[in-house]
């Protein structure tokens, strides 16, 4: 057996190898990795601080504030508390609801998807409320009442009363708690079916029936068309931006908190507004329409009777005329002449018919989705208008 010479081995083991110094002096991976061409063999590694400076100079500014800054915004926290939103709804989603499509065209960062979802939910709850509370409203009046509750003009008023402020110009340095929009941004008109009429179809005369309003038009029964110069004005675009925020808030609540929370929010902030649908009526032939209504419902023909009068021979006479169907008085009206008084009485009779309501506490179809709901009793829905 041969004996090992430890002195010879100890010198080789304890002596530092030249490669060890190179390994110890090797720079980190992020510092060492560089883009090299196929012709160059090696390149000098610059400082990491210089890379960051070059990246900041060459990077394009973001069109809207990044979502990381939402947690540090005092305006967002105040708006979240002012609206009594649930803790399930994060500040990042609230900040996204404030970014309109005109400020940031990227659908992953603006409120276009949330606003579309919210508008659908708002229109559904408002429409079922109107149909169940006033079941005899004509279709044109029903659309106008829907606009009065859920139109852009009404939603922008709600957003302003919430204390929402808009930024002078959108950008990544703006506070995330401000509404991000600009007048020269991309403005698109979304429709329910994605149908837009051509120029020839818009100019061609045709009879707009119920199918046109329900299928081919927007949610408020109007023809889908390109925005006019008035609708492209700064004031109108700003109202659209504020209205989209309210719709996006409802869509965010539905996404994070569920259907019941979204319905409660719509009831508290939108349906709680007082609107008088009687001012929306405009009759062209009230006496003829009243006669056709009585014939359709099987009532006796309407008869106008003079109730009282004063100052017949003076400059300002006043006549009070009542409309009767048999022994039932349908309505009355006053005017400076018998014909005007008769027309006003006919209008009052028609409004009394169309504005029939079973009461304020009416059940709507969405109430059946609640747990332990009572059996559904279908509400009365009238045939519709006469003319």
Automatic annotation (TrEMBL):
This is Large ribosomal subunit protein mL44. Its main location: mitochondrion. GO terms for cellular component: mitochondrion; ribosome. GO terms for biological process: RNA processing. PANTHER family: LARGE RIBOSOMAL SUBUNIT PROTEIN ML44, RIBONUCLEASE III. SMART domains: DSRM, RIBOc. Keywords: Mitochondrion, Ribonucleoprotein, Ribosomal protein, RNA-binding. Belongs to the ribonuclease III family. Mitochondrion-specific ribosomal protein mL44 subfamily. The keyword Ribonucleoprotein applies. It comes from the Eukaryota. InterPro entries: dsRBD_dom, Ribosomal_mL44_DSRM_fung, Ribosomal_mL44_DSRM_metazoa, RNase_III_dom, RNase_III_sf. It holds the Pfam family DSRM_MRPL44. GO terms for molecular function: double-stranded RNA binding; ribonuclease III activity; structural constituent of ribosome. Residues 76-164 form the RNase III domain. It comes from Tolypocladium capitatum. It is found in: Mitochondrion.
């Amino acid at each position: 057996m041969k004996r090992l010479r430890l002195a010879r081995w100890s010198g080789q083991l304890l002596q530092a190898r030249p490669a060890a110094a190179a390994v110890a002096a090797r720079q980190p991976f992020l510092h060492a990795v560089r883009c090299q061409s196929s012709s160059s063999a090696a390149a000098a590694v610059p400082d990491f601080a210089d890379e960051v400076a070059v990246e900041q100079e060459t990077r394009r500014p973001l069109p809207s504030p990044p979502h990381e800054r939402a947690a540090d915004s005092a305006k967002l926290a105040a708006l979240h508390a002012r609206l009594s939103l649930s803790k399930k709804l994060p500040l990042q989603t609230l900040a996204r609801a404030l970014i309109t499509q005109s400020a940031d065209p990227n659908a992953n960062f603006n409120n276009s998807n949330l606003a579309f979802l919210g508008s659908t939910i708002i229109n559904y709850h408002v429409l079922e409320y109107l149909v169940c509370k006033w079941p005899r409203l004509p279709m044109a009046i029903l659309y106008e009442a829907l606009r009065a509750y859920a139109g852009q003009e009404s939603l922008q008023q709600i957003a302003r009363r919430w204390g929402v402020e808009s930024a002078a110009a959108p950008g990544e340095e703006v506070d995330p708690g401000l509404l991000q929009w600009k007048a020269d941004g991309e403005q698109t008109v979304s429709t329910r079916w994605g149908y837009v009429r051509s120029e020839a179809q818009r100019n061609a005369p045709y009879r707009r029936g119920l199918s046109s309003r329900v299928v081919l038009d927007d949610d408020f029964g109007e023809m889908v068309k390109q925005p006019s110069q008035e609708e492209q004005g700064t004031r109108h675009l700003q109202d659209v931006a504020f209205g989209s925020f309210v719709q996006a808030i409802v869509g965010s609540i539905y996404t994070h908190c569920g259907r019941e929370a979204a319905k409660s929010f719509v009831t508290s902030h939108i349906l709680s507004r007082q609107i008088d649908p009687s001012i929306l009526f405009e009759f062209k032939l009230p006496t003829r329409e009243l006669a056709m209504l009585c014939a359709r419902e099987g009532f006796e023909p309407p008869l106008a009777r003079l109730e009282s009068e004063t100052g017949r021979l003076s400059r300002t006479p006043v006549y009070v005329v009542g409309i009767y169907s048999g022994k039932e008085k349908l309505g009355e009206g006053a005017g400076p002449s018998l014909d005007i008084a008769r027309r006003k009485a006919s209008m009052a009779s028609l409004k009394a018919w169309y504005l029939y309501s079973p009461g304020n506490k009416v059940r709507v179809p969405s109430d059946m989705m609640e747990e332990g709901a009572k059996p559904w009793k279908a509400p009365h829905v009238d045939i519709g208008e006469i003319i």
